[in-house]
């Protein structure tokens, strides 16, 4: 059969009502254990509180024009493609609804409606939120609670007086609940795989850290002397339910918690103890923590030696390259290596670090010779000089008296090694800083910076009735005539504000009462640009001489 172009075009543009494909029924009598749930639209599901729900809508093939999908939530809110509301969101195509951190309030029906110009189709999924199961004791009855997302149609309980038989609530006991049981009651946590504590690692030393018993964490290696006790801790930092710890010994045998075999035992906290350890006990010790959802393994390597095999060796200090320092350190703490020289400004703190090329056997002890002839030894951590266990010397608030050579000696029973650092302390130039506010008594001289304030006290030692003090300024005027920057206080003191170079000279105070008057007399002195010495005169009221310098 032949079709005309017009007929072919009509066939290819045939419109159809959208159809949402209904999936197979999902049989689910209990929520999936502690996991997110992914279902097809049309399937129902039970989801544990706190996990995510994903619902996928499937459209039938060959639907034109392309339909628009709109989701309706249990709250009545609607979401289109790319939209979100609270913890629910729809992807850009509109076919995927995700509900994150699902809560009891999210229980109910989730539906999607596909619509085009030809019609629409709707399909829904019913979601129940479960908070795990728990028991509630009311009187002599123990009630097993169901999901809180919906009210259970039947609450089962165990009547202690009926030999533990499970019966319907109506026949359970008189103290049956009238309200939903309290929560969270005894909520069952989700299982978590075990995980051992991850301790810090360190390089295997040339000799044991100590010639006594040793305690380490599993995953650390150790060198131990024959005859001592070894304890390897198996600290499990997480795991639900509590994991079982088992040890595998170097010979391949295993030990569980609270088990003992000869000199080997495992305590109830999982620690492995080896008493009177022998050369043949060395090797790999493996701890395994296991629970129903996983396991974790950690390994320690143990080396056992005889004490007679330890040979003393002298320490050797590493010689560091010198460095060019220009300019010297002005601010902040500074660190150099022993053997290097430094220029540093006073007031800073200096660290001189001792670097060993060979640590020596037994471990080295450090002693520093200071410029003043004193010494500072390992462990001295008070005062200006501190010596750390690794031989580092710290000089706090360094001063000019700390300049000189600092020699460090690393020593043990097999020998010693020394090296010297030269420290130069610099103090920058500083101008004299005269007082910003000067207060003097009449008869004293002062040097003051232009722009500052001056107070000259005129203290009358005798006079009856009380005298009145008046002042004559260097240019012959009085404070009243000069007003503004010059004033006389009730005490008779003269105040000069924002003093100027033109104000330098002789200031005269006169005390007057009805009986007499007294005026101080002084000779003119040469104006000095430096601080003048304090003089003393015989007058009861004296005239000070002022000199000034200009601050640059």
Uncertain regions spanning at least 5 consecutive residues: 1-13, 132-188, 520-552
> What is the mean predicted local confidence, pLDDT?
75
Main sheet makeup: 5 strands, mixed
Q: What would you call the shape?
A: flat
Alpha plus pi helix count: 2
Judging by the overall fold, what is the CATH architecture of the largest domain? Sandwich
CATH homologous superfamily annotation of the largest domain = Immunoglobulins
Name of the CATH first level of the largest domain: Mainly Beta
What is the CATH topology classification name of the largest domain?
Answer: Immunoglobulin-like
Strand order of the largest sheet: 1-3-8-7-6
Radius of gyration: 47 Å
Number of domains: 4
Short description:
The chain is mainly β and 552 residues long. The chain is built from two helices and 47 strands.
């Amino acid at each position: 059969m032949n079709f005309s172009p017009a007929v072919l075009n009509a066939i290819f543009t045939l419109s159809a009502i959208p159809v949402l494909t209904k999936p197979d029924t999902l049989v689910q009598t209990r929520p999936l254990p502690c996991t997110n749930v992914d279902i097809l639209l049309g399937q129902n599901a039970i989801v544990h509180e706190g996990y995510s729900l994903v619902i996928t809508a499937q459209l039938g093939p060959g639907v034109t024009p392309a339909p628009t999908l709109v989701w309706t939530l249990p709250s009545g809110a609607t979401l289109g493609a790319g939209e979100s509301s609270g913890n629910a969101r729809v992807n850009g195509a509109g076919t995927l609804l995700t509900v994150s951190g699902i809560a009891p309030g999210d229980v109910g029906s989730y539906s999607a409606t596909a619509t085009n110009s030809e019609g629409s189709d709707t399909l829904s999924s019913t979601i129940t939120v479960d908070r795990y199961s728990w028991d509630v004791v009311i009187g002599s009855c123990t009630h097993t609670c169901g999901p809180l997302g919906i009210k259970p149609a039947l609450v089962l309980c165990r009547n202690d007086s009926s030999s533990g038989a499970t019966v319907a609530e109506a026949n359970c006991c008189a103290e049956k609940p009238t309200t939903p049981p309290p929560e969270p009651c005894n909520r069952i946590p989700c299982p978590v795989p075990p995980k051992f504590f991850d301790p810090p690692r360190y390089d295997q030393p040339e000799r044991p850290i100590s010639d006594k018993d040793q305690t380490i964490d599993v995953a650390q290696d150790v060198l131990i002397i024959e005859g001592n006790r070894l304890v390897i801790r198996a600290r499990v930092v997480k795991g639900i339910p509590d994991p079982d710890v088992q040890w595998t010994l170097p010979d391949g045998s295993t030990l569980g918690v609270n088990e003992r075999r000869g000199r080997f035992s495992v305590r109830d906290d999982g620690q492995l103890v080896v008493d009177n350890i022998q050369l043949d006990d060395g090797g790999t010790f493996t701890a395994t923590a296991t629970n129903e959802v996983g396991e974790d393994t950690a390994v320690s390597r143990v080396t056992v030696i005889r004490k007679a095999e330890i040979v003393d060796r002298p320490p050797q200090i590493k010689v560091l390259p010198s460095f060019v320092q220009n300019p010297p350190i002005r601010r902040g703490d500074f660190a150099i290596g022993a053997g290097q020289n430094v220029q540093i400004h006073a007031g800073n703190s200096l660290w001189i670090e001792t670097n060993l090329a060979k640590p020596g056997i037994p471990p080295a002890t450090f002693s520093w010779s200071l410029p003043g002839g004193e010494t500072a030894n390992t462990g001295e951590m008070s005062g200006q000089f501190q010596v750390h266990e690794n031989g580092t010397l710290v000089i706090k608030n360094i001063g000019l008296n700390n300049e000189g050579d600092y020699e460090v000696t690393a020593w043990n029973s097999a020998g010693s090694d020394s090296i010297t650092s030269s420290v130069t302390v610099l103090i920058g130039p500083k101008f004299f800083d005269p007082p910003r506010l000067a207060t003097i008594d009449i008869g004293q001289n002062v040097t003051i910076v232009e722009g500052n304030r001056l107070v000259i006290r005129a203290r009358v030692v005798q006079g009856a009735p009380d005298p009145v003090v008046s002042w004559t300024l260097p240019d012959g005027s009085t404070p009243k005539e000069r007003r503004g920057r010059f004033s006389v206080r009730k005490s008779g003191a003269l105040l000069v504000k924002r003093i100027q170079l033109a104000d330098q000279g002789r200031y005269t105070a006169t005390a007057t009462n009805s009986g007499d008057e007294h005026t101080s007399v002084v000779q003119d002195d040469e104006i000095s640009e430096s601080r003048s010495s304090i003089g003393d005169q015989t007058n009861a009221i004296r005239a000070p001489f002022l000199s000034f310098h200009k601050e640059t």
